[in-house]
Structures are given as structure tokens and as C-alpha cells.
């Protein structure tokens, strides 16, 4: 029996459609859709251990493995650090691009200190049956708002952080004068969203910083920052933390310089101890040669 050509063509096309339906082209081409590789808990621990071993001694902070949905913004809020800090520590050029399972260094945020309270002058304390009169050092009653704004060349400026920030550029060098010792040293500004993160510029600058503090400490100290010729009241901490970009200054990290109205990265709040030191620095009388 001879079949018509049209019928044969229809049967052939129907057969091809059945084959395509049952066996998609991806089967023949060995193509599979891309998929994300997610670490198991054990694999994540191994990845963290490997990253910690790699960065051991190079920086202070903890290791975090990026998960689905993470962004530098969400991680900065979670760990109390800035996006610029995370990007700098991890050498990230595009802050919008991080990868699942990427090992990130999370720098240690600056701890917030509670102000120490002093008893008022003339307060009586009892100790072993003896009466003791407590006399505290005199405290200036002039508030920061009452401090007259100095003009350039005639003393120390009380300049708000939002104005100071406009003067600072990455890798810019400026000078700090410790109010209590008159010792001077240079620092390099790295970055700063809420305050200025800096590093001593040379081993000599690190040595002077160590002389000022005696030992590394979170203690706030009144300093005067000389930036572009402007003398600005500031506050300093002397504890190395986070990463370092200058590797030949004998200083394992960075330190923080606060100004009027600046804030702590961990909390986003103004630190009362820093502001007290800024106020103290604003009354500093610069030597004639400074």
C-alpha cells in the first residue's frame, strides 16, 4: 500500500516533536543550568579556618563567610563598622560586588567608653572611721557652645566634623599635637565616615605616639590637629585596631581621631569622652612656633 507524501511528512514531524518533548536539547548538548554552590557547616568552618590562618598576624578582626543576600551595607550595620572600612580591609574596589562563600575580614569596632564620674568638690567620705574631704581639680564651666570660634592663625578652632571631613582626603598627611605633653607627630588619613581613621606615618611617629601613651590604650586624649594650616580641636585614642595600609611604620593597625560632633562607628553615637577631650583641646594655647 503506497502512502501519500503528505501523510509521511506528518508522521515524521509528529515523531520529531515527540522526541524533542521527551528528550530536551539540553540532554544532547550536556547543558545544565547554573547553580549556586553553598557550603555546608563543616565546609564553612574549614573555609574560616583557612582564611584565619592566611590572615594570622596581618590584621585584627574576625572572619565572616558571605551568605546569600549579604551586602556590604547589611554587613556594616550588622557588625558596627563602615562600608569604607570593610572595603579597605578586604581590598574591594566595587562595594556593590561581593560573592557567596567569599571570606571577609570584619575589623574590630572601636569600643565605647563610659564617662568616669567624679564626686563633687567638698564631698565627705568615710574611710576606716576617718573623715576625708574630697577636692577635685577645677573644671571649666564654659560649654562647647560658649567657646568663641577662633579665626585662623589666632588659636584652636572648634570645627564640626562635617566641616573637617571636607578638608580630608585619603592618604593625606596631617599633624597632631598632644595637649598634655606638647609632643607632635604626623598621621596619614585613610578614610572616615563618622570620624578620621589614621595611621602613624613613620616609625618615628609611632615612637612619639608610644611616648605619649606609655602603652597602647583606648584612653581618650586631647589633641590639636593641624590640617591645611588650620588648628582644630580633636580627641585621640592610642589603641591599634583594624587593618594597616602602611607596613613599615612599626604600628599594627590604625587609630581614631574625633572632632566636634563626630561619632563612634560601632554605635553611630557621639562619644561623651571624646567630646570632653575636644573641648579641652579647644582651650589649648599653641606655642609661638606652632
Structural write-up:
Among the domains are: about 40-105, Membrane-bound Lytic Murein Transglycosylase D, Chain A; about 155-280, Pnp Oxidase, Chain A. It is elongated and about 115 Å long. The chain has helices spanning about 5-20, 25-30, 40-55, 70-80, 85-90, 160-165, 205-215, 270-280, and strands at about 60-65, 105, 125, 130-135, 170-180, 185-190, 195-200, 215-225, 230-240, 255-260. It has a six-stranded antiparallel beta barrel. It has a two-stranded antiparallel ribbon with strand order 1-2. The relative contact order is 0.13. The chain is an alpha+beta fold.
Give a brief outline of the structure:
Keywords: Hydrolase. GO terms for molecular function: N-acetylmuramoyl-L-alanine amidase activity. By secondary structure, the protein is of the alpha+beta class.
